[in-house]
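Sorry to interrupt, but I need a hand with the structure work. Leave the record below and I will have a look:
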Amino acid sequence: MEDQELIRQILSGDKLAIQKLHSRYVDRIFNYIYLQTNSYHDSEELLQDVFFKTARQLHNFEGKSSFKTWIFKITRNVVIDYYRKNNNRSKSIAMEGGVLETKVGEAESAENTVLRNLHMGEVMQMLNKLPKHYQTVLHLRFIEDFSIKETAEIMGKTTLSVKALQHRARKELSEHINLEVSS
């Protein structure tokens, strides 16, 4: 069932539709928040804030963008508020807790899973060395699979600035990886 249909059902009072929409996004939203905060406890609290704000504002969703883009924009704003309240505490990306997982429905061998997780662990360590805005653009584009336009909307930037930011982030990540390989 499409998000738009679930939203219509929710606005009509269907409690089951709320559960379906929540379960569709809860893990992805949590992983994004955890990537931004590196705190399991804070991520749980912020996740509740995201879904509370989403529920309060659902009637305002106009469908100009996908629901996924809309809820990630709410999530980004919740994380920004979190850092404002906490005086921009430093953060780093954590690898435990399932921050990166295979997309639902993809089947792979145990060997491929282990190799992918080893490589992703190394990539995540390199990502951790990048500035926060580089981490965010790479996460949205390549982990959450948002388009350039959707990423721009979530980050509050133009598509051109996201393209440039993505290019610089990939270049710097590549440099970090090359330094590690040659060490």
In short: The chain has a mean pLDDT of 80. Helices lie at 3-11, 15-37, 40-57, 67-85, 110-127, 132-143, 148-155, 159-182. Residues 159-182 form the longest helix (24 residues). The CA atoms of residues 37 and 132 lie 11 Å apart.
